[in-house]
Amino acid sequence: MHLERSGRQSVNKKHLNNTLVDVENYSFDYESNPFDPLFNELTFSIRKNETVLLMGPSGAGKSTLALCLNGLYPEAVEGYAKGSIRFEGRPIEDFKPGELNQRVGVVFQDPESQFCMITVENELAFTMENLQVPREQMDRKMDHVLESVGMTAFRQRNIHELSGGQKQKVALASVLLLNPSLLILDEPTANLDPASRYEFIQLIYKLKQEWNMSVLIIEHQLDDWVEQTDRVLAMNRHGQLIADCPPHEAFYDRYKEMVGEGIHLPKVVKTAQASSTYAKPLTEAELLNVLGESALEEKVKSSGIQEENQEVILELKGVSFFRKKHIPILNGVDLSLRKGEFVGIVGENGAGKSTLLQIMAGILTTKEGKRRFINKEYEKWDERELRRELGFVFQNPEHQFITDTVYEEISFGMTLNGKKEEDVNDRTEYLMDKFHLEKKRWANPFSLSGGQKRRLSVATMLDETPRLLLFDEPTFGQDARTTHELMNMITDLRNQGTAIVFVTHDMDLVNNYCDRVYVLNEGEVAYEGVPSELWSEKSLLEKAKLRLPYQVRLQQELKRMERKEVVGHA
């Protein structure tokens, strides 16, 4: 590891009175490349009690920056670092090992990666033991953090029995035990169902006030974070800072630049920019007050399947599945797919969605129920033939990586199937370019950013045109450009007759693209039908922890406003 110190020799003490973190001309790269670092000469600060939103395209170095801010990098990795980071006026190199980690807490998108113990109580006790908290104080501290995150009733529970949202709250509680001055949230809601996501965001707003801390949010899906954001930092694809300003300025005055970088922007902002208004709304209520009915954009129209094209290519009847032979995950599931159909599978964390998808993919087998794919029972399929006709993209991309480079990962299946070397090379180059992985061709797949890993996992499934493609949360972690390109590519495949299934928490995607949607609740199919009719099932939406899509929320809020106006005039 090579570290160069540079930056200010003297620090303005008045400026530091309210400054928690001060970053100046900071660059970092894993490959020790000073000429093209991962992020390049970043200069910004985070003030005390401030909420900052960090945006940027996938692979820009946002997560790496978080680990630099809490002192883990560059000490824990080989690489190149230059510039200075100060915490409360002190260079981070002056902190003892582990000291800064207690002042800067990080919550990642996968809470399970942070757990060491089996039960909630033991996990929190383990954290306090590392902090050398006196035993007589542990109960009081544990009760306090569990009450803060709304998990008091789950103190004795096994962590693996909790839902995704509950696990994320336990991870948050562990970080709060550090009593951090800065809380960094690295896509903390990426794996949560819609209701749990919204609940978690509201919890962060409450905790920020109660715990008197600064918050740095790294996120692609911005909508629900905007209202509590004081300032926006935006990075471009070259790891350079292109915005450091209030939300209104970042989203509106820098709109074209953000779009050009492929950065997700709030849906409210995109709607307002598509209109002729000079107003700069940030919330749905503000948008409707400015635009009224004209805020209701027409949704993306899915092509739908033709009446004459009703060929059923997959059918499940009465499928049940148990973990460890007695823990029920799925119970009597019936499901069918037609050629060229786009189907969404939704439901709360733990409802059985990923398990169902793996059964459909032939990865998991079940003793109860029947499964047929293209008029043949799964058991009669040759494994290699099945994989040519059916592609599956895991929720965790790392579960499907088997080679040492991005190029080999994409080309592996084509080579295995005996394609000509020239054809393999052409197709691999095309897919690397399409998914913006050409600069990572010789990188190890495990070294990629979260968004790049997801893109690679999708690319490996597109060496041919399969009859069925199954995706488990493929759009999370993706920036706006790659999400748009992925959906265009999937739509093209669908138009060629490929059936598409998405397990997703993105209700806007379901509303805009899917022909049908299945809602899983407690392992059973609670709804099967068109998305437009699902949105009126209020009780089911609450039970399955779903949330109305953006456009539907606007429609309902507009009707509420109109009713209120009529009553006011009466």
Your description of this structure?
By secondary structure, the chain is an alpha/beta fold. The chain has a domain at 312-554: 3-Layer(aba) Sandwich (Rossmann fold). The protein has 21 helices and 21 strands. The strands form four sheets. The protein has a six-stranded mixed sheet with strand order 7-8-9-4-10-11, with helices on both faces. The termini are far apart.
Number of strands: 21
Share of residues in helices: 25-40%
Extract low-pLDDT stretches. 1-16
* CATH class label of the domain at 312-554: Alpha Beta
- Please count the helical segments: 21
Secondary-structure-derived class: alpha/beta
State the main characteristics.
570 residues; six-stranded mixed sheet
Topology:
Blueprint: E1 2-4, H1 13-16, E2 19-29, E3 39-47, E4 51-55, H2 62-69, E5 80-87, E6 90-91, H3 99-103, E7 104-107, H4 120-130, H5 135-148, H6 164-176, E8 182-186, H7 194-211, E9 214-218, E10 231-235, E11 241-245, H8 247-253, H9 255-260, H10 267-274, H11 284-291, E12 312-323, E13 327-338, E14 342-346, H12 353-360, E15 368-373, E16 376-377, H13 383-389, E17 390-393, H14 406-416, H15 421-434, H16 450-459, E18 468-472, H17 480-495, E19 499-503, H18 507-513, E20 516-521, E21 524-529, H19 531-534, H20 538-543, H21 550-569
Parallel strand pairs: 1-5, 4-9, 4-10, 7-8, 8-9, 14-19, 14-20, 17-18, 18-19
Antiparallel strand pairs: 2-3, 2-5, 5-6, 10-11, 12-13, 12-15, 15-16, 20-21
